[in-house]
Amino acid sequence: MPIYEYEHIKKSCKRGKVFEIKQSINDKPLRKCPECNGPIHKIMSLGNISTPKSNTELRDLGFTKLVKRDDGIYENVTARNGDSRYMLRDKPETIPNLKKTITD
Questions:
Q1: Residue 12 CB neighbours (<10 A)
Q2: What are the angstrom distances between the C-alpha of 6 and each of 14, 17, 24, 47, 71?
Q3: Interior CA angle at 51 toward 45 and 53, to 5°?
């Protein structure tokens, strides 16, 4: 079940000015504090999004990351066995082999 944050509009109670409540995604937002019956409103919370941070993690997830190094030269920082470390303009043999990473 998701956890939602609510804030007291006027005076806070034992739960504090801002507090969390577990609710179904289908439940309507609360209008009154379950502790003191004071008026409250739902507030936006920071979401937790996990993103890969390293080139190795990106490679292991099947991504290819190219970093521009010069005009027409890109470094494949997620190169796999058999891939060229650099992709050069007008040299199709240096393009990463996507068949290694893309599957049905």
A1: 17
A2: 14, 8, 15, 15, 52
A3: 130
Report phi then psi at 58, rounded to 5.
-60, -45
- pTM of the shown model: 0.48
Q: What is the DSSP string of 1-18?
A: --EEEEEESS--BTTBSE
User: How far is Cα 38 from Cα 85, in angstroms, rounded to an integer?
Assistant: 62
Radius of gyration of the chain (CA): 25
- Where do the domains of the chain lie? 3-43, 55-100
* Alpha-carbon gap, residue 66 to 94, rounded angstroms: 12
Alpha helices, DSSP H, located in 1-104:
55-60
Model pLDDT for residues 38-68, shown as the tens digit of each residue: 999 999 877 777 777 899 988 888 888 999 9
Eight-class DSSP state of 99: G
Question: Beta strands of the chain (E only): which ranges?
Answer: 3-8, 18-22, 40-43, 66-70, 73-76, 86-88
